[in-house]
Amino acid sequence: MSRILVYCGFRKSRELALPTVGVNAVPVEVASFGALSLLWSEVEWPFGPDRMQQSAVEFHAVVHKVFHQTAVIPFRLLSVFDDQQAFTTFAAENQERFLRDLERLKNFVQMECVVYPAPSQVDRSSGKAYLEQKAVALRSSEGFAQSMRDAVAHVSREVRVRESKNGTRIFVLVERGRENDFRQAVSAVAIPEHLSRRMSGPWPAAEFLSEQVKMPQIDRVADAK
Amino acid sequence: MPNDFETLETLGGEDEVSLLEILDHVLNSGVVIHGSLVISLAGVDLVYLGLNVVLTSVETALSNLQIEEKRRRK
């Protein structure tokens, strides 16, 4: 059974060097809808669980080859279209929204910092001690997130903070080319003793996409209920 | 860059990112076009029935993967 896997969308340009091989070594195709280009492959579906991690790395490589050259809107790996007709209809319907987001984000990349309790510091001697420590860690994370907002203000267009089971995730929209300024600014922020910090990026600015681009079928899902 | 996890080199060769971060981004970030999915990741079978469930379940899967990665490194 085959499906259409879409990697990413970007503004059409002849100057871009595009990847030719995608997930599971299948060819990568380019589809253009006005000024919007989308990279896609026809893949065997579903992916085998034993190749899941490899597929993720291959998908990432395709998206990042374009992202190194220009702004992209990434799709999610496990999101596929039933056939080319569904893909074409989707692209035609969403072309303008995608181009608006690409224009808004064209000079930016997403940098990230995750703050999480240091593994060696976790107190599991009792449930109460664990919860108290978790509450302290949460307050410290909030304090750190605020300090980080202040520290990166000069290199950031926008900052978003999201709590997750794995810690506090801070997403920062940074002008392309200023990634090292971001890293230096974050490194200068003192981190509380019982917390650890991990930086990553640059990534495509997926966290800063408009909701209609991130989940364009929401209206249809709601209609179906 | 401090990193607790296995490190891979990206195509450009200039950025180092972990496998965990790649998995997180390719599964969790970007455009979603289907509301229901079934996958198996790191030996965990997952059935996603809705968009909100997708986000929660992937996060749980990544958390499990993170624990597994640490255990393997010890």
Average the pLDDT over all residues of chain A and give the rounded result: 88
Largest sheet of chain A: 5 strands, antiparallel
Total number of helices of chain B = 2
Kindly give the count of domains of chain A: 2
- In helices, the fraction of residues of chain B equals 40-55%
Mean pLDDT figure of chain B:
56
Low-confidence stretches of chain A: 218-225
- Secondary-structure content class of chain A: alpha+beta
Instruction: Give the helices and strands of chain B as they follow along the chain.
Output: EEHEEH
Rg of chain A (CA only): 20 Å
Order of helices and strands of chain A: EEEHEEHEHEEHEHH
**Beta content of chain A:** 25-35%
Q: What does this 3D model show about the protein?
A:
The complex is a heterodimer of chains A (225) and B (74). Chain A is of the alpha+beta class and 225 residues long. Chain A folds into two domains: 104 residues, no CATH class; 101 residues, Alpha-Beta Plaits, CATH 3.30.70.240. Chain A is 37% helix and 29% strand. Chain A contains six helices and nine strands. In chain A, the strands form two sheets. In chain A, strands 1, 2, 3, 4 and 5 form a five-stranded antiparallel β-sheet that branches. In chain A, a hairpin with a 2-residue loop joins strand 2 and strand 3. In chain B, a hairpin with a 6-residue loop joins strand 1 and strand 2. Chain B has one domain. In chain B, the strands form two sheets. Chain B has a two-stranded antiparallel ribbon with strand order 1-2. A two-stranded antiparallel sheet of chain B has the order 3-4. The radius of gyration of chain B is 14 Å and the shape is globular. With 74 residues, chain B is an alpha+beta fold. The N terminus of chain B is likely disordered. Chains A and B meet through strand 1, helix 1, strand 4, strand 5 and strand 9 of A and helix 1, strand 3 and helix 2 of B.
